[in-house]
Amino acid sequence: MTRIFLAICVVSSFLFSLACVQKGANSTTTSSGDTIKVGVYGDLTGQTSSFGQSTKNGIQLAVDEINAAGGVNGKKIELVVEDDQGRPEQAKTVVSKLVNQDKVVAVLGEVASTNSLAAAPVAQEAKVPMISPSSTNPKVTEVGDYISRVCFIDPFQGSTMAKFAATTLKAKTAAILGDVNSDYSKGLTQFFEEEFTKQGGKVLAKEAYTQSDPDFKGQLTKIRDLKPDVLYIPGYYGQVGIIAKQARELGMEMPLLGGDGWDSPELWKLGGDSLKNSYISNHYSADNPAPEIQNFVKNYKAKFNVVPDSLAALAYDAAKVLADALKRAGGTDSVKLKDAINSTKNFAGVTGTITLDDKRNAVKPAVVLSLDPAGSKFTFKETIYPEGMTPATNTATAANSNTTANAANTTANTASNSAANSTNTANATK
Amino acid sequence: MDTFVQQLINGLTIGSIYALIALGYTMVYGILRLINFAHGDIYMVGAYAGLFLATSLGFAANPSAFGFVVTLVGSMAIAAAMGMAIERFAYRPVRKFSKMTTLITAIGMSLLIEYLFVFFFEGKPRSFPQLLPNDNITLFGNATISTSQILIFVVSMVLMVILQYIIYKTKIGKAMRAVSFNLNSAKLMGINTDFVIAFTFALGSALAAAGGVLTAQYNPKIDPLMGIITGLKAFVAAVLGGIGNIPGAVLGGLLIGAAETMVVGYGSYIGIPSTYRDAVAFAILILVLLLRPAGLLGSNVQEKV
């Protein structure tokens, strides 16, 4: 048997390297002195490919807008896109290629925390700034000072859902069904449990699954016996859709709760009507009437013919933050660029005002969305602010904003800065 | 009690799928002494063929029992053709060399199919349309069974009965048994062994494809790598039942399915986390190989020197 497994290892590693070379040949690598090369990596064809596609589209839209407005420092931004197929080891490989072969000035990606964690050390070692649009596990930016993100982190996201469950849904008991191989899922499980217990609730069971499980009824049957008020499923849409379906088949009618990992058009195809009575925490709501959000939704729809999910919005913001930093750094020097990114303050993005804290995480409010399978869409439910950030102080800080004078952003952002925050306030009072 | 019954139903549902796939492993082994590692991927090909048929013939938009049967039979036919093609072009040319050569060819074939599918159809999971209405039937208390689970039981039972009929009541079945007994003697008796082997591959592949379509009805998400773990577990099921033994493959499949669901349901009481469900199948494999290498229903054959 050992020989067989050895053979499997050898053949598969050979195939992976082939795939890598092949994909590399696909991407545009024309180098010239007039462009700033930015690397993008994500899962374009794997288990979570809807995340990668949205991210790529969001970045593409942002870069097209920036280039149409004359680029950054007189140079156009050129994207080098790589597919990691949603595999951590592949993420590491493609980021090595981006920093060593393509010599990109910065890297944007990944969505899944596990993949970001695999690739971040490569970027850190090469001293190439990496901005993750949407990896929420705290460990991602702890890799080093070249790694930052434009989204909130799991302690906040997990506690948001726990607060929502305890206050709005008045849940006393909960069960958690998470993905055992995902850092994202493990983080959310931990922080949900902590906050839910703090709110006086009780977590009755913590079950786990793997992405290759043939069904989830075993775990669900076990949870069903405990009769929890809510079931928290901090996983990705590919499994969540099926879990919701099988839970309802087993007669489990309690609300299902999740995070931004559910946000994909694919979710509706997999879960259908079973997703009724479910809520997720997310980064933004496409329903938000703020003009800069609606402007973004309109432009994205015109280009890609689909309503942007939060991953597209975050990717758009990540690209804009990078462009803003490139401008403030006055060039592509990696130390200056890193410092410029890390000192991003009150940047008005479509997912809210972005300020990076000393751990290079964005501090932003989260929204809770309810799922509407009939219309295949997420509808806005409420906004939850991080501790110490109230709607009022948010408006105050935004009013002092001074970092948004950015050529690329002028059209969408400067006029609507205050509008965005007044909507946030309005949302909170809903 | 109803929870236990529920877990048993859950376990036997996936067990039936393992059994369908295990049959293909065991038949091919019975005849060629070859472990066809590409068999798990045929299961995946069956699911994709079903998706292709269901969408291109319009059954996805208008679900009906007729549509389901056409999809099921059609994908079984496509997979059978593919199984025969693999045998003809990959295994037959190397059959005269050592067993190890064929085995490595099988591993290569498996990887080739997987990554060709990733290349042409992308690695992303696809949702499979619901071809039959899915309802829940309450048995008693909390124990429920969904129509897609009943479908899996009924269709796999019917297919296994048909298989028994083919093997024990038809001429080709007799030829298969003869080839399985001794390939060279069968050849001397005037049996067209190449045809019998191709037929065996077709039969096994059709059963795996049926498993693929049935799983896709139950768990409507398919991707090019879905056959790896399921295929390996079906292989373990075949070894557990006694490789080469047809009733053994069915028994092994049901046992593996039930065992892994019981681990999820009750493992935590004896300190085994629910995520060890995959490990259970392989732990069983090791135990079988150590304690009863011939499997539960297999007979110990003395190798003559």
Structure description:
The complex is a heterodimer of chains A (430) and B (305). With 430 residues, chain A is α/β, with parallel strands linked by helices. Chain A has 2 domains: 27-153 and 300-354, 3-Layer(aba) Sandwich (Rossmann fold); 155-282, 3-Layer(aba) Sandwich (Rossmann fold). Chain A has helices at residues 2-26, 49-68, 88-101, 113-126, 139-142, 154-167, 183-198, 217-226, 237-249, 266-271, 291-304, 310-329, 334-342, 391-399, 410-413, 417-429, and strands at 35-42, 76-83, 106-108, 130-132, 147-149, 173-179, 202-209, 230-232, 256-258, 278-282, 347-349, 352-354, 366-372, 377-384. Chain A has a 7-stranded mixed sheet with strand order 7-6-8-9-10-13-14, with helices on both faces. Chain A has a 5-stranded parallel sheet with strand order 2-1-3-4-5, sandwiched between helices. In chain A, helix 12 crosses helix 13 (334-342). Chain A is globular, with a radius of gyration of 21 Å. Mean pLDDT of chain A is 83; it is low at 18-31 and 392-430. Chain B is mainly α and 305 residues long. Chain B is 71% helix and 4% strand. Chain B has 11 helices and 4 strands, in the order H-H-H-H-E-E-E-H-H-H-H-E-H-H-H. A two-stranded antiparallel ribbon of chain B has the order 1-4. The longest helix of chain B is centred in the first third of the chain and has 31 residues, at 2-32. The interface between A and B is large, with 41 and 46 residues.
